[in-house]
Write a structure and sequence with these properties.
Length: 154
């Protein structure tokens, strides 16, 4: 199934969200954490999730996945990485990595992230090598999609 949408480049989620709430645009694909307050407040209606597993938030209960609409290949998550400048000493990278792993195991941090619709990854992506593999896999996965779309970053 193909769907033709018009991409509107915005300078961030804030202006795009204002236009969505104001009715200037019809839909928006955004990070759950950005949209959740508006969904909880009844100002936005979630149409579909880009993840297969249900999101554990009452405001999103019953929201179908893109797959349930027949979009078999539309499954993705937004993720964050922690980066340091090239040439950062291995000792500092190890300390940062250890601090990140410790934070990921903290129950309070996990709850805080869940409250805004995020989940904390606690697997090999926390290590520099694991994250590098994940990043490469994502780049390999999305590069052909981006090229096929004809879109580009300015």
């Amino acid at each position: 199934m193909k769907v033709k949408l018009t991409t509107i480049p915005y300078r961030g989620t804030g202006p795009a969200m204002l236009d969505l709430l104001g009715g200037q645009v019809d839909l928006m694909c955004d990070l759950t954490a950005n949209a959740l307050p508006q969904i909880r407040g009844g100002k936005l209606r979630p149409i579909a999730l880009t993840v297969a597993q249900p999101v554990k938030d009452a405001a999103l209960a019953g929201t179908p996945s893109m797959r349930s609409f027949g979009f078999e290949n539309v499954e993705f998550t937004i993720w964050y990485g922690l980066y340091a400048p090239r040439g950062t000493s291995p000792a500092i990278v190890r300390r940062l990595s250890a601090a990140l792993a410790e934070a990921a195991e903290d129950a309070g941090f996990q709850r805080q992230q869940a409250d805004v619709g995020l989940s904390v990854v606690r697997d090999d992506r926390l290590s520099p090598a694991g994250h590098r593999r994940h990043l490469r896999k994502e780049m390999d996965r999305w590069a052909p999609v981006i090229r096929a779309s004809g879109e580009y970053a300015d």
